[in-house]
């Protein structure tokens, strides 16, 4: 295993791959939610329907984890190389009025030429913005 260089971390954070957000439930157990994100200005931005349970968990305990990873094809030696970014940080939840962040995040993941107007679909629902300020970011690559 080797540490990723800062430019490798940035490259991974700009891919349209799903992150996994870990929040802590009321019994102290982790709960993991797959979610889209945007990395900008040293902070992670995610949005969600305002009724989702992970938002209530963040309100109770803002300490979160986030993992973003990709895995390569199976090689002849039986290994599947991967790269991952692991984050621990503090989250906050605020409204996403007008769906500003929702639009930006959806544009990262959805090609508007293939699905015109799709970025607008979720903005009519009440959405919340999850902002994560990292305490630690570790990037690693295996084999």
List the helices and strands and how they pair.
Elements (H helix, E strand, L loop, with lengths): L1 E2 L2 H8 L5 E6 L5 E6 L2 E3 L2 E7 L3 H8 L2 E9 L10 E14 L4 H10 L17 E15 L2
Antiparallel strand pairs: 1-8, 2-3, 2-6, 4-5, 5-8, 6-7, 7-8
Structural class: alpha+beta
The arrangement of helices and strands along the chain is: EHEEEEHEEHE
User: How much of the sequence is in beta strands?
Assistant: 35-45%
Largest sheet: 8 strands, antiparallel
Number of helical stretches of at least 4 residues:
3
Assign an overall shape.
globular
Total strands: 8
Overall mean pLDDT stands at: 91
Overall radius of gyration? 16 Å
- Helix content estimate: 10-25%
What's this entry about, in short?
18% of the residues lie in helices and 43% in strands. The protein is of the alpha+beta class and 143 residues long.
Q: What are the defining features of this structure?
A:
43% strand; 18% helix; 143 residues; alpha+beta; 8-stranded antiparallel sheet; globular
Protein architecture, described:
The chain has 143 residues and is an alpha+beta fold. Helix content is 18%, strand content 43%. It has three helices and eight strands, in the order E-H-E-E-E-E-H-E-E-H-E. The protein has helices at residues 6-13, 53-60, 100-109; strands at residues 2-3, 19-24, 30-35, 38-40, 43-49, 63-71, 82-95, 127-141. Strands 1, 2, 3, 4, 5, 6, 7 and 8 form an eight-stranded antiparallel β-sheet that branches. A hairpin with a 2-residue loop joins strand 4 (38-40) and strand 5. The longest helix is centred in the C-terminal third of the chain and has 10 residues, at 100-109.
């Amino acid at each position: 295993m080797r540490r990723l260089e800062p430019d490798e971390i940035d490259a991974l954070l700009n891919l349209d791959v799903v992150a996994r957000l870990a929040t802590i439930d009321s019994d102290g157990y982790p709960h993991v939610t797959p979610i889209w994100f945007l990395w900008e200005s040293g902070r992670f931005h995610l949005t969600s329907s305002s009724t989702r349970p992970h938002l209530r968990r963040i309100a109770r305990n803002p300490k979160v984890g986030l993992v973003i990873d990709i895995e390569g094809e199976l090689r002849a030696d039986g290994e599947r190389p991967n790269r991952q970014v692991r984050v621990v940080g503090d989250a906050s939840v605020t409204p996403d009025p007008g769906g500003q962040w929702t639009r930006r995040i959806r544009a990262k993941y959805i090609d508007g030429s293939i699905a015109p107007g799709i970025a607008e679909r979720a903005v009519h629902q009440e959405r919340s913005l999850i902002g994560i300020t990292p305490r630690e970011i570790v990037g690693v690559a295996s084999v």
